[in-house]
Structure of starch synthase:
Amino acid sequence: MDMALQAHRPVRCRAALFRNERGNLKIRPFVGFFPNGRIPLPCHLSLWQNGYTASGVSFRVDATADFSRRKQRKTSTARPKESSTRGFTPKPPAKSITNKSDQKSNDEGDEGPGTVTRDHPAQSLDTFELKFESDEKISAEEAEESVAEITQDSKFDKTSNGTAGRIKEAVEVPQKKGTSSVKADDIYLAITEKENLSTDVEEITNCDAKLKAERETILKEEMEMNLRRAEIERLAEENFARGENMFIYPHAVKPDEDVEIFLNRSLSTLRDESDILVMGSFNDWRWKSFTLRLNKTHLNGDWWSCLIHVPKESYKIDFVFFNGQDMYDNNNNNDYSVPIEGGMDTFAFEDFLLEEKRLELDKLAREETERERQAEEQRRKEAEEAASEADRAQARVEMKKQRGILQELMRKSPKSVDGVWYIEPSDFKGQDLVRLYYNRSSGPLVHCNELWIHGGYNNWRDGLSISGRLVKSERKDGDWWYANFIVPDGALLLDWVFADGPPQHAGLYDNNGRLDFHAIVPMSVPEEVYWVEEELKIYKKLQEERRKREEAIHAKAKKTAHMKAKTKERTLKSFLLLQKHIVYTDPLEVNAGDTVKIFYNPSNTVLNGKPEVWFRCSFNRWTHRMGPLPPQRMLPAENGSLVKTIVKVPLDAYMMDFVFSESEDGGIFDNKDGMDYHIPVLGGIVKEPPMHIVHVAVEMAPIAKVGGLGDVVTSLSRAVQDLNHNVDIILPKYDCLNLSNVKDLQFNRSFPWGGVEIKVWHGKVEGLSVYFLEPQNGFFWRGCIYGCNNDGERFGFFSHSALEFLLQSGFHPDIIHCHDWSSAPVTWLYKDHYTHYGLSKARIVFTIHNLEFGAQLIGKAMAYADKATTVSQTYSKEVSRNPVIAPHLHKFHGILNGIDPDIWDPYNNKFIPVPYTPENVVEGKRAAKEALQQRLNLKKADLPLVGIITRLTHQKGIHLIKHAIWRSLERNGQVVLLGSAPDPRIQNDFVNLANQLHSSHADRARLVLSYDEPLSHLIYAGADFILVPSIFEPCGLTQLTAMRYGSIPVVRKTGGLYDTVFDVDHDKVRAQAQGLEPNGFNFDGADSAGVDYALNRAISAWYDGREWFNSLCKRVMEQDWSWNKPALDYLELYHAARK
């Protein structure tokens, strides 16, 4: 018997089962290419009915990995591992696959299967062949057993994942007539059960379709590859013929695709180099650099190439070739560049970069926030540990103190006092019920009919914890009474007194001659145990008190920050709406990346009546990378008086800048009187670069304050610094400085000027950087700020030394801001001298706080300054005709002062009894009024209270103040005045008035003729009205502070008073133009009738409409009179000076 088996790579053949017209069963093979890379063998199996005989049968066995686990119909006996199936012997592998079937024709003449050979170039098949020839008759059972044994034979191929391989073979089973033949059904069932062959014709058809599609794809790719090769060969020949050493393929480069770069080395400066590399980037060398090695190509000539992937964000490829070291081919210093079709343009790429930067900044911000959170958590943890240790130390100290006191009491305390008191039983401990006996006749309660014990323990540790009424005892040896009580747990010592009544209702006591009664607890807990527990209790109590205190502070700080943020938000919105009668945007808040509509009303400007209006715009203070946008003709809006246009705001914008003109070429411009129109852009990825502002001043609150100048220097500087700009202040180092408010004061340097050594000191005041100049000539060692006979010389020297300090220190500020006559010389000294020495970058801004002093110096400063301001718009109009101002109106602006909301804050104020906000203004002011009345010994009554806080000078309207005091008293009100006069005659006059009022109205009038900061806070909070009847007032801060505390201002219409106080009866329209509501009472004249008109209406409103009056107090508190808006105005002025 000779048998051969062919084994090869695992394949799978799904046979289809059919029954022919004679009833015969056939398994038809699928012969073709399988897309999974396996090569199936042909198989053909004809199964005849039992009535027919055949010389043999040929079939294929396909075993799957789970075949051995399936339920077997019959089980074959296992063979030894080294044995093989009967009649099978292995044969060396072959390169072809042969399936033989030698079958004689049957009586019907059916065609027998032949030999099929399949070779596939993509497959490498290892096969071996086994032959089977026999004349023996094989029963069905034997054939089935053979199939099973073949399937389970150990010589199977294995796939890489461990799945059993499939064996394909031709098995010939000879069969003679007259012998028992193999039934076709039995063979079929054995095959299907053992091998789980699929008969799904539809799957085979689908597989065939996929095969066809893959063949077509392969053919198409081969054709494209041939075309590509031919095209590249053609390009290489053409470029070489033209002497060009570089080309790309494909010629049209598109984003997010591959491109091949070719270099002819022989035409390059790298002709002698063995290594050729390309170094490049995209979009003008701004995006995704690369360095790749070129390889020698198959092309004719010395062509080298490499493949580059083009990013989707690209519009150009930039590159050079080099040898990996220092030899380059850079296209004659022009670099190689290839444009990319269909990608981003330069503007789109700029936006893409900006968006990438925004994402990066967002990531960095999140990381920074997380770092800050972790750092804050670490600080909090360390602070908690330190505080806990401090609490432990304090508890230990407190325990030792209590222990010393208690031990001294215990040392002196008896168990009983004969004839006075004793306790039964004499030995007791905590939680025991004891009886305390008291001899009434032994003390001051001898005649009392009722006796009570008021007691505690351990030196009254928990206060009054024992109380009870004494009962008459039956003892006959005295007037004995007793009370039963339980000894407190943990008591070492009992403390008590006797009284004639229960707690809170007793009038007479026996307290042992003010020493109280004490008795030792004989069986108390050990002292050491008690004091360890006591220290722990004290520690826990301290911790709880600290926790509550910190929570309250945190909650208050959080609420304060929230209120400040909301106020700032409202102010910004008001700032944007303030020019709505001329220009506004939709949306109102402009965000980077938005498309914004601009609406303009030319009828309110110099372009009124012009047939056309053109819009000219840029960004970032006219410095944006795109430059000014092309002029746009504005179109009529739905509202007939308005015109509009649309602007796309770039992502890197922080400010939108624009002006309007009558034509495309220009003509007449509306540029907001040279300031231009500016609208902040929110959410941009680029922040406004900070300016460096240096203030040169002779006053600064709170360390060197005389008047409002000192407040402005400090508060304006803080507000500008809060807007992320850098601020320094240069101030004389007076010997009368309040150094307690200067932090980290230390010597900085010294320099000579004018033959004098000038020492420089540096410190922090209210969070601001301050340089103190101390010339060693004694100019500022006078014990005062003003009042010397050579003040002009002193401050002139200071102005010159301030500029010298800036020069020698290497400072290059953007703005030098000087104030009033005292630092006016800075303007001309800078322009005449220091611009030539290296300080040319700075621009000079000069502010007039009060024109009444130093007019000549002010006039000269106006001529030299780049921009000039005064402290309110109305005051700027009032002084505009002054000869020192009139020639310079083109650069003269009025900017209202503000107040510092942190200094003047009724919610965080240690000088008033109850913190308050607009929500509880009524309760807060009521408590403050009561505290004020109590402090000044005024009648504690609900009366209208008029407050006056001022310097007593003629400018402040002292004759109107006197009249207002008497008028308020006539209206049954109360009056409080705080202030002093620099003129002794005025001071004496008010001293006499104070004495007179003390005699006639002591319970309703009080004049405090001195400076008292804490009292000023209490007056602002406790007064219902604050009177400011100034004859002239450049700005005035008193009325602004009054409104911060919910007090209603009563003022004369002048300067800043007119700009900030809007009469509730007459100024509604004027207030609305400023985005406000009426907030007080004002009058015109400078006589008593004017004061009466305003004061009478105010007091009547208090009496007649208390609910309305309270709502007015709430309203004025909600108005923002801080530096939020003035700081924005000053920044606009600074930028205009630099433009």
